Amino acid sequence: MTVTFKDVKADLLDKIAQGIMAPGTLMPNEMDLAERYGCARATVNRAMRELADEGIVERKRKAGTRVRKAPIRQARFSIPIVREEIESKGSEYRYALIDRTLQDVPDWLRGRLALKPGQEVVRVVCMHWADGIPYQHEERWINPEIVPAVLEADFSANGPNEWLLAEVPFSNAEISFMAVEATQDLADHMGCFAGNALFRTERTTWLKETAITFVRLTYRRGHRMTTRY
Amino acid sequence: MTVTFKDVKADLLDKIAQGIMAPGTLMPNEMDLAERYGCARATVNRAMRELADEGIVERKRKAGTRVRKAPIRQARFSIPIVREEIESKGSEYRYALIDRTLQDVPDWLRGRLALKPGQEVVRVVCMHWADGIPYQHEERWINPEIVPAVLEADFSANGPNEWLLAEVPFSNAEISFMAVEATQDLADHMGCFAGNALFRTERTTWLKETAITFVRLTYRRGHRMTTRY
DNA sequence: AAGTGGTCTAGACCACGAC
DNA sequence: TCGTGGTCTAGACCACTTA
């Protein structure tokens, strides 16, 4: 059996985890490792590159590869579509549109989306339920310049999230997580009390350099967002 | 100039973003693309593999590569050390130990850490300030079986986080984000009112299959955790 | 100046899985 | 069955960065 990059990676990881290669240690260069493992340099390169991508080691030309003293601990979150999130738990998904208006972009949002004063945006407010229990409150603003079809879109049956995913192929985004105290209005929708702590995510989505949408997702009381890394 | 995998990747991304390759589209196979771009198949492979890693496309042997209908939107968070987080904002970092005890593992934690009843754990409570303002409250339990040195460790000058990072080289973890209402005790420490909504992360860290530590980090009111993707 | 990683190439073999 | 991606190889050139 030939030595694969996964073999090399696993062995290096093991040596790091066992403390044989302590944080700060300078690792052998690719050529030496290739010889030691009996494989090509490209194989070692792939293994070490992945370790670097994962923040375990740090690579510099000429300086070599070192085990990171303080590994960059990074978590990867997949941002699910709420329908799938609910249905994957075996719950019944329900959706309702609360409000849909065309309005001048509010000042606080103008900066975020880099829009001109007086420009119009579509604001959509809706709710998502799991087994009839409030799950998530969604408040969204959409820039109709990029997605003109939003002016015709009817969000009474399906949420704007799924609609946008189908309409806009690919985008980059900025996302924030925070805790908020429920307003009376939010509390009414979420079936909790005003002032209760709720978990919220805010996301601004861009296509190239122009903002498409800003969304505020507020989850029911006690919601946790979890991941492994 | 030769064609690099970044060139290929950027061009493919562009075609996807422009809708030339719409979601669901079957992309040409690696050999054809290599010929079209005038490069080796390995170059195309690297470009497409990275697109797959980022959740933009989906690859299956024999079936080929498709643009994902619903791209896996995933965010990468780097989990910073509090001290660095604060100092990188140009603020002055301050730390204080609140409590340090050796106690029987509480029932609710036993399951999380997979410990035996009656086993002892070290509990550390401490605070982190930025410019003298409460920034983060830390409550941590450490398994002394894995890190016996914790029994001798004195956390009066430095937080257990940095200490653990130096002691335990590498680990995997599960992390959760949530919103909580401040208890009176928390409120006293954080300089807010009981009931205020606070952002909290909880993290369980493992070395191989054994739990090292469970930590509960509660941030000051209004804190946001932000990332781009 | 010189060593290290970054990448490309051309060819090869193989495993998966759709047909 | 057989096309597609997954990976390895051996060699090469280059860019960065530090000594």
From TrEMBL, chains A, B:
GO terms for molecular function: DNA binding; DNA-binding transcription factor activity. The keyword Thylakoid does not apply. The keyword Signal does not apply. Pfam families: GntR, UTRA. PROSITE patterns: HTH_GNTR. Coiled coil: none annotated. InterPro entries: Bact_HTH_transcr_reg (IPR050679), Chorismate_lyase_/UTRA_dom_sf (IPR028978), Tscrpt_reg_HTH_GntR (IPR000524), UTRA (IPR011663), WH-like_DNA-bd_sf (IPR036388), WH_DNA-bd_sf (IPR036390). SMART domains: HTH_GNTR, UTRA. Keywords: DNA-binding, Transcription, Transcription regulation. Residues 2-70 form the HTH gntR-type domain. It comes from the Bacteria. Gene3D superfamilies: Chorismate lyase-like, Winged helix-like DNA-binding domain superfamily/Winged helix DNA-binding domain. This is GntR family transcriptional regulator.
